[in-house]
């Protein structure tokens, strides 16, 4: 997405009466409190002085601060985002929520991230999912039907949606041959009100032959607009093309979709779309994936999806949307599918109602689209003495041309110890580099009168 400008702090945005969360790319720092270490050379000095005399001793300290890590979390310079939506039957309210808020959602991201590119994709079932086909033969047959009422019940469609149903015993007789076929059928309330406890009818039907075939890769996943090279309007147009439709069984082809999005349509187990996602090599990559059903694992298994994502260093923001009763038990995170994928590479997982979907996307992208930069901090050096120094005046100064402030790991600095004796005696004390573990040296000073 081209020519967007950075806004470091965005105020809350009002969408459909709801405050849309802003993204603030300024984050707190985390600091490990481990002390710096080091060593002083020479480690020991021995000197003889006379009362009232002064000497200068040059030493150097080597600093080791590998274990002090100052971690700062910042927004990435470049961000690629692919919105990946389940477009099967039960996803209508969730899709509508994103479509209603798409423009403000994308504007919020664009104003937060300096260099943003956005793509859009949708998915349906698994490529190996069987799809039925009826083909008319041009022939007809005459049937007589008898419907005998059994009971009222709660039925569920293939998407897990409950509906009031009325069960009938059905008897179908071929008027020409006398062949009889019976079964139990479920019918709507309006049909029950029309039929009552017993109903008969006769009609002529077309004879059709049934066959089935694989759904196929292109019908399982569709990259509508690639990530790099498009515009915000391209993304909004693609999002508005989402529509809840089809969906045979409950599970969907989300693992296959994630694999195709990550690998740019590469072949897996004989299925490939060839859709080039157009990820940028130097950008942070995030897939914002939402749906309400678990994934099939026939074409792509969990670990295969994770491997494809990790190979491209893609983070996944996975959002389960509650829809039907079935979505509560066999949703996106069934058997920890979605959360495992999200946690495999610094992503995030959440479950929300459809009305909260777009707002949740904003906050979760903000949490996931961060870079952690680890550095070794600098320290300022100071020096002191500890021990028997009653007959001595001791001062320290930095004598290194680089100075003794902002010293980093592996740096060596020169410092000077000035000693003036005031009284005779033997003095044993240590020189310390303050707040630097093990950076200490021994001093043996013998002050004597000379005959």
Supply the number of structural domains. 3
CATH fold-type name of the largest domain: Rossmann fold
Architecture (CATH level 2) name of the largest domain: 3-Layer(aba) Sandwich
Helical stretch tally: 9
N-to-C span: 89 Å
Question: Level of helix content?
Answer: 10-25%
Order of strands across the main sheet: 14-9-8-15-16-17
- General shape: rod-shaped
**DSSP summary, beta strand count:** 24
CATH homologous superfamily descriptor of the largest domain = von Willebrand factor, type A domain
Level-1 CATH class name of the largest domain: Alpha Beta
- Main sheet? 6 strands, mixed
Task: Name the poorly predicted regions.
Answer: 1-22, 25-33
Oligomer: single chain
Can you give the mean pLDDT? 89
Structural class estimated from helices and strands: alpha/beta
Tell me what you see in this structure.
- With 451 residues, this protein is α/β, with parallel strands linked by helices.
- 19% of the residues lie in helices and 44% in strands.
- The chain contains nine helices and 24 strands.
- A six-stranded mixed β-sheet has the order 14-9-8-15-16-17, with helices on both faces.
- Residues 1-22 and 25-33 have low confidence and may be disordered.
Question: What is the structure about, briefly put?
Answer:
The chain is 19% helix and 44% strand. The protein is of the alpha/beta class and 451 residues long. It has three domains: 13-25 and 76-128 and 216-369, von Willebrand factor, type A domain (Rossmann fold, 3-Layer(aba) Sandwich), CATH 3.40.50.410; 32-67 and 378-447, Immunoglobulin-like (Sandwich), CATH 2.60.40; 130-213, no CATH class.
